[in-house]
Amino acid sequence: MNNYENLLQYTKEELIELIEIYSKNWLALDGVWFQSVERKLGMDEAMYHDAEAWKRFTAIEAKRIKAFLKLGEHPGTEGLAKALKLRFYANINNDDIVINGNTLTYSAVNCRVQTARKRKGMPFHPCKSVGLIEYSGFASAIYDRFVCECVSCYPDITDDTCCCKWKFTLKSRLSEISGI
User: Fold this and answer.
1) CA nearest 126: which of 149, 155, 152, 150?
2) pLDDT tens profile 29-39
3) Residue 4 domain-assigned?
4) Is residue 110 a part of any domain in this protein?
5) Residue 82 lies in a domain
6) Are 78 and 89 contacting, i.e. CB atoms less than 8 angstroms apart?
7) Cβ(150)–Cβ(157) under 8 Å?
8) How far apart (Å, rounded) are the C-alpha atoms in residues 62 and 55?
9) What is the SS3 string spanning 109-169?
10) Edge to edge, what strands does the sheet with 164-170 contain?
11) How many domains in the chain?
12) What is the sign of the dihedral through the CA atoms of 48, 49, 50 and 55?
């Protein structure tokens, strides 16, 4: 039996549960390798490798989701919203997306990474620098006119209603030409 035939034996609800399990497994692997480097070589070295991994992974993830959704070349803020909802994180974290014109604001209402570190008595993950790489790269792979900025993310929390908040602005061709 091939994998496709194997998956056909499960109900829709079981497959949705399996996606959640896969998402948690992915996040666990991400955390396990990070913490291994952090314990042996320190936070700075772990952050360096985390950034390098996210530079590559986030574009891969975005391109596959973009193809799955058939977003085309110019998906705009609605396309980015759809893509963000299909990331691995989306299956295991609560998030909120607000679109206002050419701007999309994405908030991670809760974060399994920070919750796990707190539960283990570890300091919070200083994820802002890697988050900039991750979210900028993801948005750019969806549509290269997106500019991403951090609104709030550890260690620079400016909004205590969420774990992190990111703003994506879709730049117009005119602003590109005029340098605005």
Assistant:
1) 155
2) 999 999 999 99
3) no
4) yes
5) yes
6) no
7) no
8) 12
9) CCCHHHHHHHHCCCCCCCCHHHHHHHHHHHHHHHCCCEEEEEEEECCECCCCCCCEEEEEE
10) 95-100, 103-108, 164-170, 146-153
11) 1
12) positive
**Phi and psi, residue 143, nearest 5°:** -160, 120
**Tokens 């570190």, residue located:** 117
Residue with tokens 């340098």: 179
Tell whether 149 is covered by a domain.
Answer: yes
Q: Between 180 and 129, where is the model more confident? A: 129
Closest CA to 127 of 61, 60, 50: 50
Domain that holds residue 16: 9-178
- What is the tens place of the pLDDT at every residue in 69-112? 999 989 999 999 999 999 988 888 899 999 999 999 999 998 88
The answer to whether 109 and 155 have CB atoms below 8 angstroms apart is no
106-120 burial string, b = 16+ CB within 10 Å, else e?
bbbeebbbbeebeee
Helix axes 43-69, 128-142, angle to 10 degrees: 20
Query: 152: domain CATH number?
Result: 3.30.1380
Does pTM surpass 0.70? yes
Structure token digits, residue 169 = 């602005």
